[in-house]
Write a structure and sequence with these properties.
Blueprint lengths: L1 H13 L1 H7 L8 H11 L15 H11 L2
């Protein structure tokens, strides 16, 4: 858990673009999903995240928060 925390902090410090490229996975299939998350983060309404434990909800929430106004 500590390593994951350090990695997230490191990526945050590298800047928005680098974080997006490294977010969750480097798989091509994830790029449209990350783009959708960034687009959603610009909206002026709450976003509800749900899913099973261990699916990355906290990482998604962090991305949305960092990209939001």
């Amino acid at each position: 858990l500590k390593q994951a925390e350090i990695r997230r902090e490191h990526l945050r410090l590298l800047g928005e673009t680098r974080f997006i490229e490294s977010f969750i996975t480097e798989a091509e299939e994830m790029k449209p999903i990350v783009s959708s998350l960034i687009e959603a983060s610009q909206a002026d309404y709450p976003i509800f995240l749900s899913g099973e434990t261990g699916t990355g909800k906290s990482l998604v929430a962090e991305l949305i928060h960092e990209q939001s106004r």
